[in-house]
Each structure stands twice: as C-alpha cells, then as structure tokens.
Here is the input.
Amino acid sequence: MPNKAWGLVRENLVARIGKNNYATWIEPLKLTMLKNGVAHFEVPTTFFGNWVSRNFSDHIKSQLNESGQGVERIEFSVMRGAMPELTAANAPVVKPPAKPVSRLSRNDDDLPGAPLDARFTFDSFVVGKPNELAHAAARRVAEGGPVSFNPLFLYGGVGLGKTHLMHAMAHELQARQPQLRVLYLSAEQFMYRFVQALRERQIMDFKEIFRSVDVLMVDDVQFIAGKDSTQEEFFHTFNALVDQNKQIVISADRAPGEIKDLEERIKSRLQCGLVVDLHPTDYELRLGILQQKVEFYRSQYKGLVIAGGVLEFLAHRITTNVRVLEGALTRLFAFASLVGREITLELAQDCLADILRASDRKLTIEEIQRKVAEHYNIRLSDMIGPKRLRNIARPRQVAMYLSKQLTLRSLPEIGRRFGGRDHTTIMHGVKKIEELMATDSQLSDDLLLLRRLLQG
Ligand code: ADP
Ligand code: MG
Here is the structure.
C-alpha cells in the first residue's frame, strides 16, 4: 500500500526540510504508484514537478529507502484535471507576513465573535467601479454616526471583498469608539453558538449577549437558509437590535430576495435598510489590487524585480476572483524570491499554469441555457423549442443575450444551438434584451445575478 509508506515518509520529511517547504512542496504530492524501484508522483504543474525533482527528490528517495521501499527513481506527472484553485498548501513558501489577528476589543472578551484579520482595513481595500458603492456605504456606517440605514446588506460573489469590508468596518468603529460593543461573526458561527446554547440550556445567556451589542455583523447569512430554528432566532435577535436602533451589517453571496429557503419575513426585513452589491471585478480593479500587493511585497523583499506586462497579463487572465488573484501573486513572489530570479511573463506562465488553465474554462451556451431555464423555472427543452409565449420567449432571449455576451460564439452558431434559429432571430433577441434592460429593473437584476452565477 504505497500511501501508508508515504504517510510515514512524509512525517520524517518535515524534520528534514522544514515545515514551510514541506507544506509547499511535499504535501501536494500524490504518490500514485510504487513499483519496480520507481516511485510515481502526481504534481499540480510541470513547474512544480521540476522544482520538487531538483530540490527534494534525494530527500524523498532516501526517506523511502530508509522505510524499506527500495526506490531507485522518482517520476512526476501532472495531475489530470489540474487543480481548480490555488490552495494554501501550494501557495506561499516565503510566507506573507503572518496574519495578525485581533480580538474585537480588549474589554469585550465575553462577546462570542470571530477574530478580525488585521490586514482587512479600509486602507488596504482598493476601490474601483465594481465596489465603489459598497465601499462608500461601508465607510459611512463605519463612521458610526446616527444609524441611517439598518441593516446594511452587502452582497456579491465569492472573493469580491465582503468579508474584507466588514472587518474594515469593525476595525474602524472600534478605533473611533473603543467603548462600542462590536460583534462580528459568520452566520455559521451564529448557528453554532445557538445550537450550543440550546444544548447547554443557556439560551437566555445567548439571547442576552446578542441583544446587548451595539453593532452586529453577520457574514455569509445565506448559510442559515433552510435552518429553521436558527433563522427564527436570528430574526428575533435582528428585530430586538433594530428596535434599539443598533447597527446591523449583513453579507451574503446574493441579494436577500434571491436566497432560497429563507423566510419571507426575514427577506423583507433584510431589504429594509440599504442593499448594495459588489460587482464582479473589472480589469482596472484587478490591476489596482495587484499593484497594491506588489508595493507591499517590494517593501518586504528587497531586490524583487517584476518585468513590465506581468501584472497586466495576470489582471487580464485571472478574472475569477480576488482571492485567486492574490494567491497567484503570492506564489510568484515566493518562487522568485527563492530562486532569486526576475518575475517574467514566461516564469509567470510556467509557475501559474494550473491557475491560468482553470481561469480559462470556457462557458458553454448549454450551461447558459441551463442556468437561465433554472432561474425562470422553465424547461431546458423550451430554450430550443418553438413556444412563443412571453414567459418562455423572454427567458430564451435572455439566454441568447448572455450567450452573445459571455461566449465567443457567432450569431449563426448561437442560432444553431437554439434549435436551429436564424442568426437574425438571435440578433433580434439580443437587441430586445438590451432595450428592456434600460427600463426594466427586474430584468437587469436578473441579468446581474445570472452573470454572477455563470461567471462566479
Ligand atoms: P468575500 O468575503 O467576498 O468572499 P473576501 O473579503 O474574503 O471576499 O476577499 C478575498 C480576498 O481578496 C481577501 O484577501 C481580500 O483582502 C481581497 N480583496 C477583495 N477585494 C479587494 C479590494 N477591493 N482591495 C484589496 N483586496 C481585496
Ligand atoms: Mg467572505
């Protein structure tokens, strides 16, 4: 059983090469075969394999031999369906400065909040078109003036900065008014505390604590959808605080009305304040964020050189979300600082092959049709069928529009995939949606959501 042997060897390797190297280079390795003196490993990228082979194969070999495996050679091959995303394990060698964590406030240790990331401040938040509204609203609430919108509801796709903004608000509020009891936690933690309180028969304490804060921030509230008694409790907490005119800040991955299995009364409560969304990043914002991070790394590691065009290349190619973008940069810097090489376009392409490949994934017309059909509750077959009823034809046009916008397919190609329709029909559909979008806010909301779901 190769994996058992490998498990032991891995443990010994930590001691030999250090924790950081281990986490970065050894942990992601998968031993797939051990036969005839050859140990076969799967690695996430070619670069990764070369690196491990050059630097650690002797260690690995001697450890395997010591454990009685009789290994003469080590081979690496790239994993099929390479890794979708950078993981903590394969990212940093030279770690970015440790994430300092601060409790909410020194005298509020009784609050069951989650720790705040000290790096998530307004200063480190890059503002661009897609997030300027959310940023402005967050700033306003963080000033801690009279409660003007309650709750502030921030929503947007993964990795667009919701948590960052919430932490920034908590930091700012606490800095301006140290006496304020600010409680930040995820909806999951809220549920966990609630269940714990139920189990330990301390529900009164639970209620008291949550009703005694000045500012309550609940991250990723979509999590409590479908969890009935947690929702119930959340609703009561929410009302009690609003009644006392205490500020509430909520985040979710979608608009209140779009969260399935969330009670209507909660949805409508959540919509009472200010609802703002973080749009998917655009090229300028991504570039801005990269530039900011580079400044930061430069101050940490003197002598790092990054060739012109690399940041632009990354901002152009990695469009999924900011977290992935950051991970890519971290890995690049880690590598460059280890080998003392300039970060060139070529190096970036090699070192980030897996991330770039994952970002490359092309959206298909079929996926678009499926999501749109789901959203409007019609059958997928109606997308290609002949029905002309408005409640079918309109979603179909939405799918046509999105196909034109989000894929590189030509109108005739799109037509073929919509049951062999003529390209003029597609053009008409696309135009129709463009016209309607200007006046029909429901439709433009639908489109925003669909785009987000498709590109998420
Ligand atoms: P979300 O909570 O929306 O999933 P996060 O707030 O966790 O996203 O953000 C993911 C990462 O991207 C964090 O490291 C955060 O600092 C970073 N990030 C997101 N948006 C920005 C921005 N506008 N400026 C700087 N960093 C950002
Ligand atoms: Mg978050």
